[in-house]
Design goal:
mainly alpha; Arc Repressor Mutant, subunit A; two-stranded antiparallel sheet; transcription regulation; DNA binding; DNA-binding transcription factor activity; transcription
Length: 208
Amino acid sequence: MSATKRDIAYKRIKEMILQGDLTSEFTPSEKSLGDELGMSRTPVREALQRLVMEGFMKGCSHKGSMVNEISIAEAVEIVELRMAVEEFVIQNLSLPLSDEQCAKLQAMVDSQEELAAVGNSSAFLESDVEFHDYLASLYGNQLLRDTLKSARERFLAPGGVILRNKPQMLEALEGHVKILGALRKGDSEEAKRQMHAHMVFAKHVLIS
């Protein structure tokens, strides 16, 4: 099924938010966005309404929709949600993982090591999302996977304050290495402990 104009507008506007092109200080009108995307205001308005429902934007009576920057309090709540769900997921994976699954995770870790070395935080964050999303996909519950994906994406929105420097990236990388090591051994309890430590680190970064 081909994507509708509303879907295209939703994807493009969301990308603009995540990339920092749209902020709470700079959010163009529906008409301006429509002109930029080459479509009418209707699909743009519908896309904005969806983004409001997902928490990426907020409705303002006099200004239309504005980017909803993530607050520290919301970020902590998201970490706590992720902690509960991701620990459950990793503890209940079918272990041991296959050689192919381990190789895919290792490739992500290797890529993250290279990105951390050069301080590419944007690409590292994308790879971090990919790593955790792949673990969720192995569990096989699509609703949990979608919930986690939406939660992780909020960290990429304006105001997100995690993995923004090299030491933080290296610490997150170490967490991924330890999680993968436990999964290779087929030790679900150790994998859960390492995921918990990984989430505690994320929470510490947010409140420090």
